């Protein structure tokens, strides 16, 4: 399996495309406009060049990875020959279902359709296609080029063959996959949302500053990144959507912190907007990514 399409060229889509291209897969990156894709392609090329300069990619590997990456705005053209499609769009179930229904019509009969979701149901998504046995979730982590984990989440109708293939592909990416039975939030998002939400509640209550809450988690519990730093990196709007979904599916303990809702309403979305729990507007680096 060497032909891969990635739908969505945001932070996660770019990282996933990079991971496949540098691992020898032929990758087509799809998004809504040529302008968006050209910017994404330039970002991926820059990351490839940095990886080469730092000794992670040889000159030959760099050139091969660059040749492996292609961009295409037309989903029909982007996915027509794909053996695996990884969707990496916003965490909105209606949007994902719409894309999967299109892919179901476009893709080869044997193609596997994967969603890079942190919370959504591959069972619900797969049920809207004619191939639920070939629908699965591949949950990558940000930044994709550094994070080793992929959660592989089987839906109710996902076949053993599909799970086996995706576990194997994950290892080809030099990642460590874990197999998870579907339940809202899976393993990591369910735990991480609770920790992050409690950190936001403590900040709102004046227990400690954002910096000291994060420092306590890093130095006291050996977390590589503080929960508020991580929320800023993920995007506070994304975190809020995740919390709302988990609150709806798992109950009251996942009710989003009012401070998170307030920040999103104010347009403070974290690193991508320049301000969140930290101020990035002056180029300040608050964590190593």
UniProtKB/TrEMBL annotation:
It comes from the Bacteria. Keywords: Oxidoreductase. Pfam families: 3HCDH (PF00725), 3HCDH_N (PF02737). Residues 3-182 form the 3-hydroxyacyl-CoA dehydrogenase NAD binding domain. The keyword Secreted does not apply. Coiled coil: none annotated. Residues 185-280 form the 3-hydroxyacyl-CoA dehydrogenase C-terminal domain. Belongs to the 3-hydroxyacyl-CoA dehydrogenase family. NCBIfam families: PRK09260.1 (NF006722). This is 3-hydroxyacyl-CoA dehydrogenase.
């Amino acid at each position: 399996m060497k032909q891969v399409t990635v739908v969505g060229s945001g932070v996660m889509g770019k990282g996933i495309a990079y991971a496949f291209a540098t691992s020898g897969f032929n990758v087509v990156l799809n998004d809504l406009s040529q302008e968006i894709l050209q910017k994404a392609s330039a970002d991926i090329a820059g990351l490839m060049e940095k990886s080469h300069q730092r000794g992670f990619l040889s000159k030959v590997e760099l050139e091969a990875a660059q040749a492996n990456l292609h961009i295409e705005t037309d989903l029909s053209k982007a996915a027509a020959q794909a053996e695996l499609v990884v969707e990496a769009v916003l965490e909105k179930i209606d949007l994902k279902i719409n894309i999967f229904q299109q892919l179901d019509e476009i893709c080869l009969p044997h193609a596997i359709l994967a969603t890079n979701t942190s919370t959504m149901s591959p069972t619900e998504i797969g049920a809207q296609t004619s191939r639920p046995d070939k629908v699965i979730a591949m949950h990558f982590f940000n930044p994709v080029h550094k994070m080793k984990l992929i959660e592989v989440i089987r839906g109710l109708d996902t076949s053993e063959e599909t799970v086996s293939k995706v576990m194997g592909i994950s290892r080809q990416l030099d990642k460590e996959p874990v197999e998870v039975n579907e339940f809202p939030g899976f393993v990591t998002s369910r735990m991480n949302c609770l920790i992050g939400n409690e950190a936001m509640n403590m900040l709102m209550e004046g227990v400690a500053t954002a910096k000291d809450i994060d420092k306590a988690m890093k130095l006291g519990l050996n977390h590589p990144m503080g929960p508020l730093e991580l929320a800023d990196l993920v995007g506070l709007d994304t975190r809020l959507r995740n919390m709302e979904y988990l609150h709806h599916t798992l109950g009251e303990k996942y009710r989003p912190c009012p401070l998170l809702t307030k920040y999103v309403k104010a347009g403070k979305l974290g690193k991508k907007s320049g301000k969140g729990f930290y101020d990035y507007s002056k180029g300040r680096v608050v964590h190593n990514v």
